């Protein structure tokens, strides 16, 4: 599904912030991406999301060479990826419902097509009574759940979640990860960036991608 | 979706239609909307004035030319060796016999003298002054008068006769009117260019102000075309509001001018104005042009912003 071969990234003329990344993400796999703060987790997530281009190496995603992709092809690939940002990135002028429906709306789907699905998902993540409010009145945990719902609404083949449990209590964090595990079982590949070692220990079977010294170490 | 919800919300009938579900993705507050509406309104107003002015000049010019070309004048200069009254009578007969001449009227000696009054003043004894006699020809228009033949005929009658078919006047009026219309169209083009530039600045500002929204839209799978369409929608609406205000104001100006000119029509200055500019009414053609400019303002606003956003997103890669 995703393959990195000798991928390196530097900003401008500076040193490489990521070096010799070699790994693959298979279909229906689950992996934690971890490492100390500033190790490059978010940068690696951005490479996976095709919002950064590597300075060397090859990234292949859904069987396509990322360096050869035109903008329309990148858009098509992003529609197969769900993403949860560390800072949620909810649009403040849209209600929770509209934020969650956004990935479907940008695909020019009519509201009648997606309304029931969005409501069902919002209820499922516990935001059934918050769908008409704006993000500014949501708590951190509610924003987190809205961001997760937005990532899941397209039933992505690949889910990228950057610190999805950073703003919720431990119980909620476990529930969110359990949700991701269930998604993985239904065929979605999941990458969860986190530095919460305790949480990772509770899901022992998951693969760990550890960033350190600008390199990636893999523990299957 | 997984079977067990994270936290079930109270059972309720959710009516998400309470708010327009298709809320604009580019927030109204993120664009200098009011400023843009004012700029578009002013530009549309000026463009409508230019277009209405061009219509007014075109109409007046057609009226002048048709009035001038419906008349011709024969002037007979006095000569001691000739009988003026006889020359006038024979010339009138010859003119009446020409196909295309509807009416011929010789001005009396007194009427000819009155024509000189504005230059010579009243109370001047003109009995000793050789005042030319004028013969006014009303033309039917169809068939056209053969002026060369008429010229030859009247010179045969009197070598001092001279025919003025007003062609030079008509051509000069046409040239002047065409030049004024061209200037009005040039102004229109300049105003449209200025409006496009103002919209371009506003679009760049809106893009800078909505950078984060654009980024999120990209991440959730929005194409450049989709994003540029969102900006287009917003700018069409702003352009339409500005365009309607500007066009409405221009229409009011022309309506008021038309009413005022009708009210002043009975006064001497009103008559002069009417002779120059007609009834000051731009008619359906003028109002259609103004309505078209309002629509074009909205279209220009939307299209310019869409083009700029799309190109810029493509360049950003």
Sequence-ordered SSE layout with sheet pairings:
The complex is a heterodimer of chains A (220) and B (317).
Chain A: E1 2-10, E2 16-25, E3 30-34, H1 41-48, E4 56-61, E5 64-65, H2 71-78, E6 81-84, H3 96-105, H4 111-124, H5 140-152, E7 158-162, H6 170-185, E8 189-193, H7 197-202, E9 207-212, E10 215-219
Chain B: H1 33-69, E1 71-76, H2 84-96, E2 101-106, H3 109-120, E3 133-139, H4 147-157, E4 161-164, H5 167-209, H6 211-219, H7 224-264, H8 268-277, H9 283-316
Antiparallel strand pairs in B: 1-3, 1-4, 2-3
Helix pairs in contact in B: 1-5, 1-7, 1-9, 2-4, 5-9, 7-8, 7-9
Given helix and strand content, the structural type of chain A is alpha/beta
- Give me the strand/helix succession of chain A: EEEHEEHEHHHEHEHEE
Biggest sheet strand order of chain A reads 6-7-8-3-9-10
The spatial strand order of the largest sheet of chain B comes to: 2-3-1-4
Number of helices of chain B: 9
* Number of extended strands of chain A: 10
Count of strand segments of chain B: 4
Q: What structural category arises from helix and sheet content of chain B? A: alpha+beta
- Give the end-to-end Cα distance of chain B, rounded to a whole number of Å: 34 Å
Run of helices and strands of chain B: HEHEHEHEHHHHH
Rg over alpha carbons of chain A: 17 Å
Strand content of chain B: 5-15%
Nearest-angstrom radius of gyration of chain B?
Answer: 34 Å
- Inertia-based shape of chain A: globular
Q: Mean pLDDT of chain B, nearest integer?
A: 84
Structure report:
The complex is a heterodimer of chains A (220) and B (317). By secondary structure, chain A is an alpha/beta fold. Chain A is built from seven helices and ten strands. Chain A has helices spanning 41-48, 71-78, 96-105, 111-124, 140-152, 170-185, 197-202, and strands at residues 2-10, 16-25, 30-34, 56-61, 64-65, 81-84, 158-162, 189-193, 207-212, 215-219. In chain A, the strands form two sheets. Chain A has a six-stranded mixed sheet, sandwiched between helices. Chain A has a four-stranded antiparallel sheet with strand order 2-1-4-5, with no helix packed on it. The model of chain A has no long low-confidence stretch (mean pLDDT 91). Chain B has 317 residues and is of the alpha+beta class. In chain B, strands 2-3-1-4 form a four-stranded antiparallel sheet. Chain B starts with 32 loop residues before the first helix and ends with a helix. Chains A and B meet through helix 2, helix 3, helix 4, helix 5 and helix 6 of A and helix 6 of B.
């Amino acid at each position: 599904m995703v393959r990195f071969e000798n991928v390196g990234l530097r900003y401008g003329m500076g040193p490489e912030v990521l070096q010799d990344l070699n790994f693959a993400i298979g279909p229906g796999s689950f992996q934690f991406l971890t490492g100390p703060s500033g190790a490059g987790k978010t940068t690696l997530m951005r490479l996976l999301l095709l919002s950064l281009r590597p300075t060397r190496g090859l990234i292949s995603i859904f069987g396509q060479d990322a360096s050869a992709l035109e903008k329309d092809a990148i858009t098509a690939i992003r529609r197969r990826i769900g993403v949860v940002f560390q800072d949620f990135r909810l649009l403040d002028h849209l209600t929770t419902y509209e934020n969650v429906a956004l990935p479907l709306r940008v695909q020019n789907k009519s509201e009648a097509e997606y309304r029931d699905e969005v409501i069902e998902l919002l209820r499922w993540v516990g935001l059934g009574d918050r769908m008409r409010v704006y993000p500014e009145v949501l708590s951190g945990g509610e924003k987190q759940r809205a961001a997760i719902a937005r990532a899941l609404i397209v039933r992505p083949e690949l889910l990228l979640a950057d610190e999805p449990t950073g703003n919720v209590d431990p119980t909620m964090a476990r529930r969110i990860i359990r949700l991701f595990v269930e998604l993985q079982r239904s065929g979605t590949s999941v990458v969860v960036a986190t530095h919460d070692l305790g949480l990772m220990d509770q899901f022992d079977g998951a693969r760990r991608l550890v960033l350190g010294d600008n390199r990636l170490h893999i523990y299957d | 979706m997984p079977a067990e919800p994270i936290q079930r919300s109270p059972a309720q009938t959710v009516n998400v239609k309470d708010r327009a579900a298709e809320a604009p993705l580019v927030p109204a507050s993120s664009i200098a909307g009011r400023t843009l509406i004012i700029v578009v309104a002013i530009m549309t107003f000026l463009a409508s004035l230019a277009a209405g002015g061009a219509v007014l000049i075109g109409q007046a010019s057609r009226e002048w030319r048709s009035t001038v070309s419906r008349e011709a004048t024969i002037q007979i200069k006095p000569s001691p060796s000739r009988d003026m009254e006889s020359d006038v009578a024979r010339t009138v007969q010859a003119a009446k016999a020409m196909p295309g001449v509807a009416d011929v009227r010789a001005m009396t000696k007194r009427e000819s003298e009155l024509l000189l009054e504005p230059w010579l003043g009243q109370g001047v004894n003109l009995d000793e002054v050789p005042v030319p006699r004028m013969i006014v020809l009303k033309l039917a228009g169809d068939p056209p008068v053969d002026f060369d033949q008429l010229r030859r005929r009247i010179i045969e009658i009197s070598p001092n006769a001279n025919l003025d078919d007003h062609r030079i006047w008509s051509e000069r009026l046409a040239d002047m009117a065409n030049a004024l219309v061209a200037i009005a169209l040039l102004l229109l083009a300049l105003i449209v260019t200025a409006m496009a530039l103002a919209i371009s600045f506003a679009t760049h500002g809106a893009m800078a102000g909505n950078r984060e929204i654009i980024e999120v839209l990209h991440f959730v799978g929005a194409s450049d075309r989709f994003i540029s369409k969102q900006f287009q929608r917003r700018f069409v609406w702003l352009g339409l509001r500005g365009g309607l205000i500007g066009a409405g104001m221009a229409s009011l100006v022309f309506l008021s001018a038309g009413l005022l000119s009708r009210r002043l029509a009975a006064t001497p200055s009103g008559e002069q104005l009417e002779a120059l500019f007609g009834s000051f009414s731009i008619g359906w053609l003028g109002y259609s042009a103004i309505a078209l400019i309002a629509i074009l303002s909205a279209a220009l606003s939307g299209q310019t912003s869409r083009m700029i956003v799309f190109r810029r997103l493509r360049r950003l890669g």
